[in-house]
């Protein structure tokens, strides 16, 4: 096959263009610090890089979820500690009420302080964090509890509705006066049927007991809240149903009854101890969840570091290696120019030499 000068020139020009394109690619990598700039550079690495970016963004959101949950649990633990202290003070007052030397005036003073502690308990159980009520379940944005005075001057802990009404421990609507006090019938708050719709507050009552959950890792969720119903409605160590809401009402009723002292220092005292044990059990569960979230936070941080490291190995260049490749290509390019300068078509001057 005859090789012409034109063929040689074309081959050299093509090779020089290839060298220039390689140098341009290396220059782009050196200026950007990345191996790839568009999908056509390396489709496999681009797909891998996109997946890693998605995993890192999801991991950062998991980290935010974990931080918010830790803060929520810290707030819950503080409120439960205040609840324990309040119940402990009520128990101390109940023991004092059993003193045989105390008369009506002393027991009335004890009843007044217990009424204040009941109001304090209602305030604690309406603890708010980040715009949501900690013990409100999925009800969240409206307070779950209220401490309301009745027509006899006693305070009651009741469930609060969004429209300002009150529910008892069974979710039934309580009757109230025009001043907002609870009507009493037979020593107990009087129950009425909601007008027009008997199940009007059923859903809202159920929301108070609903659990909140958050995702802390791919496919891993945790229920992190404590509801007010967990505190007020529970089973003791023998499996017997207990209700703190009814117990507090019974305590204040017995304090105003001269014949109720024996029940106050007997059955009621045992029941308030069981209620305190229940709160302590809930606190231990909250503490276990706090430990789990701390461990999840450390794992999330480590996982985020690993994903970032893998992404760097996928996307980022080795600057030393690329500098050497670029210097090599510069040498090749200069050599190509020098070689191509000799591949010229003969001119008339060549024949006159």
UniProtKB/TrEMBL annotation:
Keywords: Bacterial flagellum, Cell projection, Cilium, Flagellum. The keyword S-adenosyl-L-methionine does not apply. GO terms for molecular function: structural molecule activity. It is found in: Bacterial flagellum. One of its GO terms (biological process) is bacterial-type flagellum-dependent cell motility. InterPro entries: Flagell_FlgL, Flagellin, Flagellin_C, Flagellin_N. SUPFAM superfamilies: Phase 1 flagellin. Its main location: other. It comes from Clostridium frigidicarnis. Residues 5-138 form the Flagellin N-terminal domain. One of its GO terms (cellular component) is bacterial-type flagellum hook. This is Flagellar hook-associated protein 3 FlgL. It comes from the Bacteria. It holds the Pfam family Flagellin_N. Residues 270-352 form the Flagellin C-terminal domain. Transmembrane segments: none annotated. Belongs to the bacterial flagellin family.
């Amino acid at each position: 096959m005859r090789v012409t000068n034109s063929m040689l020139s074309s081959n050299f020009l093509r090779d020089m263009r290839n060298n220039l394109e390689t140098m341009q690619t290396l220059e782009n990598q050196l200026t950007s610090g990345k191996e790839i700039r568009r999908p056509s550079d390396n489709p496999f690495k681009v797909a891998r890089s996109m997946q890693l970016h998605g995993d890192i963004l999801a991991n950062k959101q998991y980290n935010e979820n974990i931080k918010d949950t830790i803060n929520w649990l810290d707030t819950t633990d503080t409120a439960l500690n205040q609840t324990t202290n309040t119940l402990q003070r009520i128990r101390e007052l109940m023991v004092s009420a059993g003193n045989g030397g105390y008369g009506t005036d002393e027991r009335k003073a004890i009843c007044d302080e217990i009424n204040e502690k009941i109001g304090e308990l209602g305030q604690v159980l309406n603890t708010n964090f980040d715009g949501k009520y900690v013990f409100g379940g999925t009800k969240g944005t409206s307070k779950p509890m209220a401490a309301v005075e009745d027509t006899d001057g006693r305070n009651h802990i009741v469930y609060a509705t969004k429209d300002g009404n009150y529910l008892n421990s069974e979710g039934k609507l309580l009757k109230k006066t025009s001043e907002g006090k609870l009507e009493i019938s037979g020593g107990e708050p009087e129950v009425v049927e909601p007008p027009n719709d008997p199940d009007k507050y059923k859903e809202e009552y159920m929301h108070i007991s609903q659990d909140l959950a958050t995702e802390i890792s791919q496919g891993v969720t945790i229920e992190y809240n404590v509801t007010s119903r967990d505190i007020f409605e529970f089973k003791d160590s023998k499996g017997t149903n207990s209700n703190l809401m009814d117990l507090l009402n019974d305590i204040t009723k017995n304090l105003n009854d001269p014949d109720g002292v024996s029940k106050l220092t007997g059955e009621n005292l045992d029941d308030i101890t069981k209620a305190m044990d229940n709160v302590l059990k809930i606190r231990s569960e909250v503490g276990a969840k706090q430990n789990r979230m701390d461990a999840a936070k450390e794992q999330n941080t480590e996982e985020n570091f690993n994903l970032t490291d893998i992404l760097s190995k996928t996307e980022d260049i080795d600057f030393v290696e690329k500098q050497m490749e670029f210097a090599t290509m510069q040498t090749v390019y200069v050599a190509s120019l020098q070689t191509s300068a000799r591949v010229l078509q003969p001119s008339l001057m060549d024949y006159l030499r």
